[in-house]
Amino acid sequence: MSNAINLWGGEKGGTGKSFVARLDCQRHLDRQQEFFLIDTDKSNATTSNYYGNHKFDRQAFFSEDASRASTANSLLDAALLRPVVANCRAGTNESLLTWLVTKKVMPTAVRLGIRMRYLFVSDLDNDSLNLFRPTAETIGQYMPMIFVANLGRNTTDLEFFESSSFQGLLESYRVPVVRLGLFDLEMKKVVDGRNPQKQLLTWGEARDYPDFGILGQQEIQTYLEDFYAQLDGAERLADSAFFEPEASRDANGQETETLPNSPSKRNSRNG
């Protein structure tokens, strides 16, 4: 099975990208799957503070300067060896596009059997939701997308997200949704280092943390299992929607397949 690069983004800061990227890291660990973690934010490598033992030995950063776009090249090098969990800083889209275009990333990734996905993490505030369409119109041309609705960041103001217009937008771009529920805030403080040891806890360490007791440990296990199941399903749907074989016939009448669908075909089919 080919390796994948999961790019945890969303443009807006403070939506919980690193929180969810850590869940993806733990998913690999719980399945005994080796992976590489790459924090693309030099100034705030929050995910590496928890899962630093799994960092790739070369960092990757996105640059809007085309003459420096090679700073992200190690993402593909890492994915040749293991699946990659990449935590992106806010406002990455333009620099990500610079890398994709100037380095002709996607043809190389397809040739190498590497699948890239963009996971749009949103706190469901209007400013975050308004960033989805331009992201889908640009990044969605190059790779499958998954929308991560971080309900833990916004449990009351869901009118825009649940509106028929926004749900129709998700459907038109064939973007599956992962709904991330609220995680207990007192337990989160402990996970984030407010414990006697002043230690940041991975999700695996939190699941076994004695002071959480039986109920707390079971709550974490259930939270992880729900996330894993949703993300597994969303990855399958997103990959299928983007890389869906389209049968055509060559000059000899033989069926051929084209992968992935071109952006123009995808947009016309989706209205």
Please provide a written account of the structure.
By secondary structure, the protein is an alpha/beta fold. Helix content is 43%, strand content 15%. The chain has helices at 17-30, 48-51, 74-79, 93-102, 105-112, 126-129, 132-138, 159-162, 164-172, 185-191, 203-207, 213-243, 263-269; strands at 4-9, 36-39, 84-87, 115-122, 145-150, 177-180, 246-249, 255-258. The strands form two sheets. A six-stranded parallel β-sheet has the order 2-3-1-4-5-6, with helices on both faces. Strands 7-8 form a two-stranded antiparallel ribbon. The protein is globular. The two termini are 32 Å apart.
Summarize the structure.
The chain is an alpha/beta fold and 271 residues long.
**Which residue ranges are poorly predicted, with pLDDT under 50 across at least 5 consecutive positions?**
246-271
Quote the distance from N terminus to C terminus.
32 Å
- Class inferred from helices and paired strands: alpha/beta
SS strand fraction: 5-15%
Tertiary shape: globular
Radius of gyration: 19 Å
Order of helices and strands: EHEHHEHHEHHEHHEHHHEEH
Most strands sheet? 6 strands, parallel
Mean pLDDT: 90
Number of strands: 8
